[in-house]
Design goal:
275 residues; Hypothetical protein af1432; mainly alpha
Length: 275
């Protein structure tokens, strides 16, 4: 399927059921905590994407595009938020997105967002934009699985969705990868250019004519999160570390690993999905 045809495909991205339930409880209060609402939406790609898409519509007449969840929340009323959350489709079964383990995908995306925010702080980049880009960097993978399941399942037989080689294999077979799909969606949602460019070049940040530091940040954060999901050892991580991308940011492998506070050996609990 051509990229433009894929992007035109109607899609309803599934949300984390627990996040939706907790949000509905919080929004039922007379005076909901916007900090708590921001934390919960920040755990869910679909809700974050819908919120930012809504905040960047011409209806709000903003002079600049919104990249962060807290800023987007400040524009919406409680009634709008309740409607947004209550209408969210839930990823309640293994068939919600064929070929994708949603619990693993949600965990991976959230961890990438947290790592991206930390790395952005090290290189004095916009941490809000980094978190958003990290959270949504692989949302294109969900669209690929929903819109072209047969094609993507054949790719899954070669490498799983979170494999470090995934982008290169998709590029070879499809002519584009999940990052290009994520960028196309972000552009349609009218996200800031810095986020769109980061998503577009995340898999090969040095191939861009103009180096975008945020693309390098996402590249390193997703490498770390995928390496952990694959349970790579020290030698495998040393071999696979994207050194050139790190060099451009002044980050070596030890600096990247030090930004990872997550205990990956523990079984994920509900609290793990809170920012």
């Amino acid at each position: 399927m051509e990229l433009n045809a894929l992007l035109a495909h109607p899609v309803a991205l599934p949300s984390l059921p627990r996040a939706v339930a907790l949000l509905m409880t919080e929004l039922a209060h007379d005076e909901p905590s916007l900090r708590r609402v921001a934390q919960l939406i920040g755990t869910d790609q679909a809700l974050a994407a819908r919120l930012l898409e809504l905040a960047n519509t011409p209806a709000f007449q903003m002079q600049r595009q919104i990249a962060g969840i807290p800023e987007a929340l400040a524009l919406l009323g409680v009634v709008q938020l309740r409607s947004l959350v209550s209408s969210a489709p839930l990823g309640t079964t293994s068939r919600s997105v064929p070929g994708v383990n949603l619990q693993q995908f949600w965990r991976y995306s959230l961890n990438t967002a947290k790592l991206a925010r930390s790395l952005a702080g090290l290189v004095h980049h916009n941490q809000i934009a980094a978190y958003t880009a990290g959270l949504l960097h692989a949302v294109g993978e969900l669209l690929l699985h929903l819109a072209a399941p047969d094609t993507v399942l054949s790719i899954n037989s070669l490498v799983p969705p979170l494999d470090l080689r995934r982008a290169k294999i998709e590029q070879r077979i499809l002519g584009y990868c999940y990052g290009n799909v994520s960028a196309g969606l972000a552009q349609r949602w009218q996200f800031p250019d810095v986020v769109v460019e980061a998503l577009q070049h995340q898999s090969a940040p040095l191939d861009n004519n103009v180096y975008e530091p945020l693309a390098g940040v996402i590249h390193l954060a997703s490498w770390r999160a995928r390496a952990r999901e694959a349970d790579l050892g020290e030698k495998e991580m040393a071999v696979s570390f994207p050194g050139e991308a790190g060099l451009m940011l002044g980050l070596d492998i030890d600096m990247v690993l030090q930004q990872d506070p997550i205990d990956w050996t523990a079984r994920p609990e509900a609290s793990d999905y809170v920012v």
